[in-house]
Design brief:
Largest sheet: none
Number of strands: 0
Domain YjiS-like: 7-42
Helix content: over 70%
Order of helices and strands: HHH
Number of helices: 3
Radius of gyration: 13 Å
Structural class: mainly alpha
Protein name: DUF1127 domain-containing protein
InterPro entries: YjiS-like (IPR009506)
Length: 50
């Protein structure tokens, strides 16, 4: 049980980092096209990781 909780948190963190990495690679124009401002990247990544 405890191990599965830890593994779940690790997976969430890895999804978060990957999402931040991918969104950060986009230009401001590309981010605007999908409705995200650069300052919102971390919040969007948190929402996507859960």
């Amino acid at each position: 049980m405890f191990t599965s909780v830890i593994l779940s948190k690790i997976r969430e963190y890895l999804r978060y980092r990957e999402t931040v990495r991918e969104l950060s690679r986009l230009s401001d124009r590309e981010l605007e096209d999908i409705g995200i401002a650069r300052y919102q990247i971390e919040g969007v990544a948190r929402g996507a990781a859960v």
